[in-house]
User: Fold these one by one.
Assistant:
Number 1:
Amino acid sequence: MNVSSTAKLSFLHPKKILKIVLLTIVCFCFLPFFVSCNKEVRYFDYVSELRNNIFLAETDGFSLRVYSVTKESPYSADGVPRETNVRTEIWLVAPSGDKECNVSFSVDAQSYGGEMSFDNVKTEYYYACPLDISALKELVCHIEYGETTLDLTASSVVDESTLSPETVLQNLVTVETELFQGLTDKYGFAGEIYVRLIYEDSPYYYVGVIDRNGQTNAFLINAKSGKILAKRQS
């Protein structure tokens, strides 16, 4: 402290000096609290299910869908995000489900594949493995269905005009401010988020915002413009 500052303080009443010191201490004690309250929440960190790419192929009697996904484990829509795992999911519609079916494919010179199980509810064959294919443009799958063999080239529905899941979610946070602020406090976001790319003639996003009570606010979003096309609460 310089001489002029010391001189100024000498004219202050001791009680005023004590008040200034106490106020300074309080400000420093509560500074971390104010910083934590004002920290920016990265909502994408709370995404517990992500589908960021879809690959499609079709030929006579066969329809192939390949998904690039990330899912929490254990999987539960309870508003609590858990550790996630990256995986590739393959679904095949075939003439019937009474034949043995195998799939094989390669990514970066590594081979993958195996026997596909038949889902009696969806009436489709299914195969999954821990593999990230989100950046691919196509995937060539070799199918052995009973005595029939075929190669299907599944092409991605994502192109340069398709918004990323991160951009779609950030746009939603901006539009649905009340919803996200209502679930956000100094500890972060009290919920989990699903972001799924879907395809029906053109790509869309489904975004589900799930609170700790299991209530879901669901949104259908145009994957090109980011416009909300529909929303509902359940």
Number 2:
Amino acid sequence: MIVENHQIAYRNVASKYYNFLPEEIDLAIQDFDAILSEHGYNSVGKMFFSIMSNPTAEVMTAKLFIPIEENDFTIPKEEEVDFSSYFLIDRMIMTRLTDDFDAQSQVTFWELLTYIEEHEMSRKTPIFVEFKETNAGQTYVEMSVGVQ
């Protein structure tokens, strides 16, 4: 089920672009977390990313986002890390995946794009993927995209 009027909002968000094979996303996440830790920054335990490339591409281009505890951010330019004190995207459509994330993510990506077309909307952002957890500890994924 796709819902409208979704938003993504976080404070103190570090972000970095990566190119990787889809099955190696964990390596990109570990690298980014290590860069932040190495410079004294602490993740608040949440991570999300935007898919910049076609999801069928062999090498994926994505921007990883990690909210951090700290309010001030200074990191060497060569690390190529950006920082936003507030990150907000509203007017989004969103759907959830509760299992078989790898297989379902391709299908869900195209479902979101089809929904946009069928409802005569315009896509305004890349697809965002957020890993979340229920109070019972079950992991799920929210996929969303900004629309107009």
Number 3:
Amino acid sequence: MQLFGTSGIRREIDRDLVQLSLNVGMAVGSVYRSVVLGCDTRTSSNALRYATMAGLLASGASCSDAAMVPTPTLAYVAREFKAGVMITASHNPPSYNGIKLVNPDGSAFFASQQKQIENLLQGRSLVTAPWNKMRGAEVYSTATEKHVERIRKDFPGSFKIKVVVDSGCGAAYFITPHLLTKLGCDVVTLNCFASGFFPHDVEPTEANLRDLTRAVKNEGADLGIAHDGDADRMMVVDDRGRFVSGDRLLAIFARAMNAKKVVTTVDASMSIDEMGFKVTRTKVGDPYVSEELKKGGNFGGEPSGAWVFPGISLCPDGVYAAAQVVAIASQHKFSVLVDGIPSYPVLRGSVGSVGSVGIVTSELEKGLMNMNPDSVDKMDGIKLNFKEGWVLVRTSGTEPKIRITVEAKSELLAHYLYDGVVQIIKESAHKGEQ
């Protein structure tokens, strides 16, 4: 039984997920006896939060309830406990929910820790504590302010710029506007209320942030900031109302922080390698970035908008990233910084996975080899390297999809490579069904 993907447990909400939340609570509580618990704004999050809490308490563990907070906020205060449990499906659709398990340093549970929880669930060895060892949950009401005050220590100045914040009705609906106001910004809020329903697809991509780009232009703002559902991601719209790609934002952060070593994922742009940083690449997924940062480096991230600042936590922190980007924009016009970052055409997309992923991947590899790459990297999926670009094809760790990333030194080549890969995927899927 494999419950965990690259970012915890995620699936569509149903009776089984409610039952699983109870059992995961019991499993976690049987190993980690002091746990902090939180959730995002989804309509199903409180149901799963209380089910998980019941499991933790039934195991005899102590549970401190932080209620509705962003994932990085929960991860920051997890240092006071043996573990943290966050109820969220991050950027997945509102019909999904899930469970993230974090260590006291903010990092996601390692594979060995996940396996331990899976074995407890599979072995049906979960037991309740004796009645006289069970405890009541405590309310943990100070998580937000503790997170805000820690961030302010790194940004003690006052930043007199105008910022539009779009939380997508997610978990950062309060904390990011509150933080930026404390930092001296003139804050305009967009979708900053906890309705449980998302006004647009909550992943902070260019296609989903059209309202933010219009608001930045209409307000004459210096910056637009967007989060996903649990605020472990943050993306930016510049003062000209342009969506800033994650690859460029990665470079802007690295420069601003004077990073010597940058940890990023295998799907990040080749431009970061050309800018003088020592670059270490990992599999796609912020847990891999965090794991590598434990070996050294003062900044890491991935183009999806997950930015890791190990000085505060090994959890991607979209709230801290918002403060960092405001500090940058107060010193330099953001559009000028963006235009100063080298950039190549990048295409990202996905194809719904059909049939057996194993069969599709086997047939797919045969087809991809016919593209005659200069070299092949199988760290995560299949990456084909060419003289003027590269292609990455990998199965998603959070959804039943095959993800495609292409970068090339010309638009023509990028589209040629992308269209070719899509055709190969469709052909290999058809063969796999035969």
